[in-house]
Design a protein that fits this description.
- The structure is a single chain.
- By secondary structure, the chain is mostly helical.
Length: 171
């Protein structure tokens, strides 16, 4: 009690001297914690972006491989379509649309799981609700489209370049 009274009187008399001797801190403890948490959050954002980019790159390569296998497995079908008059543009469109649909299905699943997990965490924390980040959802849809197009270009081009006669002989 005596020490507290002395500190209070010192604080009232000359706060600058008290701060000089580190008896009182100019920033509150909450502000210091908030500042350090913001710094850590910045590093986590950078790390999350890096991990997300690498994951997206791996998924894009995986989708391209799946589409290339699909072209190989459906070589006879492509040959029949070309023999019946399908143009290379129509064949390319088919494979690009398939890649886009696969990517968008994955994107929609990710959006649903993200919202469910976000609501679950918000209810556990009790923060008063979860805000749905519509801008980031829209960004994710566009990134999914870009990945689908990028992953489907090479398989679609390969499928459109197949020779119909050789394709019909393929076993």
């Amino acid at each position: 009690p005596q020490v507290e009274r002395a500190l209070i009187s010192l604080t009232r008399e000359n706060q600058s001297k008290v701060n000089k001797y580190n008896l009182l801190v100019s920033k509150s403890m909450e502000a210091q914690v908030a500042e350090s948490l913001e710094e850590v959050a910045g590093y986590l954002r950078i790390g999350g972006f890096g991990i997300g980019f690498i994951t997206l790159l791996g998924a894009s390569i995986g989708l391209m491989n799946i589409m290339l296998v699909s072209v190989t497995e459906r070589t006879r079908e492509i040959g029949v379509r070309k023999a019946l008059g399908a143009t290379p543009i129509k064949i390319r469109q088919q494979f690009l649309i398939e890649a886009l649909v696969i990517c968008q299905m994955g994107g929609i699943g990710g959006i649903v799981f993200g919202i469910l997990i976000g609501n679950g965490v918000a209810s556990l924390i009790g923060s008063g609700g979860f805000i749905i980040p519509w801008v980031w959802i829209l960004f994710g849809v566009f990134v999914g489209m870009a990945v689908g197009l990028a992953s489907g270009v090479i398989p679609a081009y390969k499928a459109s370049r197949l020779d119909p006669i050789e394709s019909l002989r393929f076993e």
